[in-house]
Amino acid sequence: YNKQLLSDILMAKQGILLLDLLMLGSQGQLYAWGKNWLSKRLSGKMGYTGEFNYASDAYLRKQTKQYEAQKKARTQRSLWVGYGANIALPLLIVGPLLRNKGIKSGGIGFGKLKQLIPILNYTNAIFMSKWVMLWNDVFNWSFANFSAARDKHEVRERLWEHGSFYFFFYFGDVLLSGLGAQALAKQFKAQGRKMPLSLVKHHKVLGLRLPIATHLNSIYEAVGRQPNHWLYKAARRNFWAGLLGTSLGMALIKIGNNIYTYRTVQAEEQSGLANKQFQVKVPQVGVATPQLVQYFNQAAVRG
């Protein structure tokens, strides 16, 4: 093979991947920190916007005190980690290949790298691999949003939202679509229909044999690019069913988060008000006021 051509192709792929990751990273960082700046500027309030409708200004200021003190350091850390990670990934992938080590199966780690690289490739040279997206999401979405969280309630909400997103988008959607494809395959087999391509493949993950739906684009190609072919239509419905299931799951997490935060903030505000009233009343109990002392002195003189 032509080493120079291989090197040029790898460098071009590295450049495209780096550009895409930098753009995605900028989007994530801008969202995380931009929403904080914009909400404060438009509302004139400090604190988590999810609590604006029911939390008092005093409560918001108290909850966001630590964030305001650490904001500059958090922003710098978020940018360094986010952009650093996205610059490092193309180097980790392409660097060993440029040295002609990743192509061979020998060497510590390079055999695994050779197996890993195909799943990081672009589909049809257009669609970025979702595993590259996962890398960006961890460092420039989750890390940035946790760094930009203004209080403990926002941290908890982000934890649930991001955790559910990772599960449903990267694993749950695949699992739901796989189970649906497996059911369709059994149905078509019972009906005696001949399929040009299997709807489902099985892969071992953590010792479990899980059904994975065949990529929709592969089925489209297998049926001769006929959008009305019965197999493609069934696979497409299964794809949308899986997407709907994941969206519903994430929506329920969001609703549950909102309800829990509202109830928690209300309880904390009420508790704080009760404590304040208690602290005002307690010093008055058993305290000898000047008027009371004068009364007893006069009574003693009369006695």
Describe the structure.
Helix content is 72%, strand content 4%. It has 303 residues and is mainly alpha-helical. The protein folds into 2 domains: 1-122, no CATH class; 151-303, no CATH class. A two-stranded antiparallel ribbon has the order 1-2. Strand 1 and strand 2 (208-213) form a beta hairpin. It is flat. The termini are far apart. The model is unreliable at 101-108 and 280-286 (pLDDT under 50).
Total helical segments: 9
Portion in helices? over 70%
**Secondary structural class:** mainly alpha
**Assembly state:** single chain
Query: SSE order, as H and E?
Result: HHHHHHEEHHH
Structural domains: how many: 2
Number of strands: 2
Mean pLDDT level = 81
Q: What's the Cα radius of gyration?
A: 30 Å
Shape call: flat
Low-confidence stretches: 101-108, 280-286
Please write out the topology.
Elements lengths: L2 H41 L13 H7 L1 H34 L11 H7 L13 H18 L4 H39 L9 E6 L2 E6 L2 H7 L7 H52 L8 H13 L1
Antiparallel strand pairs: 1-2
Keywords summarizing the entry:
303 residues, 2 strands, mainly alpha, 4% strand
Write a brief structural summary.
By secondary structure, the chain is mostly helical.
